[in-house]
Specification:
five-stranded antiparallel sheet; 5 helices; 238 residues; 28% strand; homodimer; alpha+beta
């Protein structure tokens, strides 16, 4: 499995992803799930993937190979809506090619695609395995893909459109930490990216591995804080 | 869906269940999922159910109908292990009867069965749709069935075998509250039961509906406390 979460906030975008891929518990590997397509000063396109690894890799390879071609591509797209259309279509193309023999395998993949193209505000899309997609709005300013349930309560309790980017990152990391503690199929290292509205650069991209002191402290502080709140809440009166 | 959680702690057992049943979002109803088979002073058997409602109701009806028969039954069982065997066998019997025509319906149900019979300590079992089962041990002293993922992180962070019964109930309620906030298919009222080791009565059984002030306050205190901890944790240094 996988766990990725992205937010479209007032000040910009937050992307965070784990890097564990598994096909059964004895076939675990590390693959980055956060990918960037950037023309500095003009467009920043960010993408996270979950689902069939063969499909997601092929989709990314095809999109990179076509960047300077005549076909619709991510560097030619005029809007983020067009970008989402291209990702969805490429996903359908790969599944149609590979799923021919069926064999009961799930070839589907989900994508979170976000970014900003000159002339538009930052936008964020969730692309389903079927290739259709939805866009994030201020009412619910985040998307998750992969193993989403463990880390959802903290997002629902903390995040709204006016949350700062740094608080968004902190919340995404706590959400991922909760997921890692409860589910073996999600694991370090993490990819984290902070995109400031209107900056058109994707340089605030951080990697957190098991030696990262700050992430470790964050998880510990959260655990200790939770237990503290828990013990301070009075028992129910019947 | 459904969410039930039970704990086997040093001082006894905790059972908590929501009461929402749904087949699609336009067919939602309230059904109790916590059931008791009690001979005061001699045995307390508690059961929670998740999965196909037709199956769980039939299993419970058959077990009640057979209580004073010659067949293996819950009032005749010498141990909680025998109780778990009877529940598993009755589940298999109902599925074998009803699933004959297939039709792509999932007839399976899961059960959490716990309690105490004179001569034994309290015991807790999780019975799978296939009728086989596992028993709770002090290393991981809880079981969940139904929509389990949203409420698991708080259990993993707070509960161990030495947790008091009242803290166990508080944690179960927070776990259910987190699930209710993130998933529509889990809802009030709740059934909560506290069983003290060696008491052989099941009278500490409480019902919490939307008008229960204490449960409302518990959820609010948890939300406020979480947000407070969140804002006190410093942002990550990169």
């Amino acid at each position: 499995m996988t766990y990725c979460v992205a937010m479209a906030l007032k000040d910009g975008l937050v992307f965070a992803a784990d890097s564990r891929t598994n096909a059964g518990v004895d076939q675990i590997a590390t693959y980055r799930k956060l990918h960037k397509f950037v023309i500095e000063g003009e467009r920043v396109i960010l993408m996270m993937t979950a689902g069939n690894l063969a499909t997601t890799q092929s989709v990314l390879s095809l999109m990179r190979m076509r960047l300077n071609s005549d076909r619709p591509n991510l560097f030619g797209a005029a809007t983020m809506y067009d970008v989402a259309t291209i990702v969805g279509a490429t996903g359908r193309e790969v599944v149609a090619r590979d799923a021919g023999q069926g064999q009961g395998v799930d070839f589907g993949s989900s994508f979170i695609v976000g970014g900003q193209i000159q002339g538009e505000p930052p936008r964020l899309f969730l692309i389903y395995p079927e290739g259709n997609f939805i866009e994030c709005t201020p009412d619910t300013p985040y998307f998750q893909i992969g193993e989403t349930k463990y880390g959802k309560p903290i997002l629902d309790r903390v995040i709204d459109y006016h949350t700062s980017l740094d608080d968004g990152i902190k919340c995404a990391l706590i959400s991922i930490d909760s997921t890692i503690r409860s589910n073996l199929s999600v694991g370090l290292p993490l990819d984290v990216l902070r995109y400031r509205r209107g900056s058109f650069i994707a340089s605030e991209h951080f990697n957190l591995d098991e030696h990262h002191e700050g992430f470790h402290q964050l998880g510990e502080a959260w655990s200790v804080g939770l237990r503290d709140v828990f013990h301070r809440i009075p028992n129910l009166k019947w």
